[in-house]
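TODO from last week: model histidine kinase.
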Amino acid sequence: MRILLILILSVGFSAVAHSQQPVKPSDSVRLSIFSQKIRAYSTTKDYSSALKYLKQYQHVKDSILEVYKQQQISALQLRYQTVKKDLEAKSKEKNINLLIGQNSLRNTNIYQARIIRKITIGVIMTIAFLLAISFLQYRLKKQANLRLENQQDAINQKNNALEHLSKQKDTLLEEKELLIKEIHHRVKNNLQVVISLLNTQSAYLNDIKASEAIRQSQHRMQSISLIHQKLYQSESRALINMKEYTQELVQYLQQSFETGNRIAFKLNIGDIDLDVLRAVPIGLILNEAITNSLKHAFPADAVGQIAIELKCLKGKLLKLMVTDDGMGLPPEFNIDICQSLGINLMKGMCKQISGQIAMENENGLYITIEFPVS
């Protein structure tokens, strides 16, 4: 029994000693007193008293353990509450951070959504603007095409009218060419008829002067007839090539006067074309000058040369020269007071083309005429 009590006390002290909660001094004293009494009564073998103090001892120990237990539970609860609060604080902080992140993400999404919306609106407005411009350009192009079509129709109508007028003009020009050609042909034929009549008339004349006058008139008409013949034969009905005309006029006069090889002709005629208003006077002047030289410069069977030159001076004047190496004019000759038909005819024709005539004696006769190009 004594050993059992000692074991119980040892276990009790050991439990109290190993508790982490400090024991109050009064409780410690009480436990020490109870322990001494238990040992004392156990020694005296008063086990009932020892058991009594053992129960008190156990009661105090249980009270101490209960307090310790309550304190442990309180400490654990406090620790639990602290940990719980820490966890709740961390959770709240985490939730706050999460909310902040979500809010930031939402703000970012809102910002991006606004930017996307602005971009979308801008794109839509740009597309609408481009569509409006395209539609406007289409309308303008359509209107321009319509105007161009109307203008093209008007141009086509004008072209058709011009083409019709051109055809009419070509027809009229052809008719005019034929008419002019016919006129020149008829004038030439009529002059030839007159020349033939004069030739027939001269056959019935016994007066030498009258026959000579008729012959001179024939030569003059022939010079005009040659011009109309050239106009009739040439492609241009308005211009006469003076080189060809002079050559034919010289051949005609050579045949008329039957000069043969006795009198030579030297021609230096430029490639000059004259209209009929100037060609006729020049033709008559050439006829008179050559005829006078053939008749008066070379008497009997004299041999000589007649030179004819027509050239352009500085593009403004034309110069005609008819020269011979014959007898020349008498010393008392004055062109201003001479009243012969041939001289008066040359002066009149020269005046008609606004020209100036001069005659000089220098180893023969020099006749010079200058007149404007046009």
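Done. Residues 266 and 307 are 5 Å apart (CA to CA).
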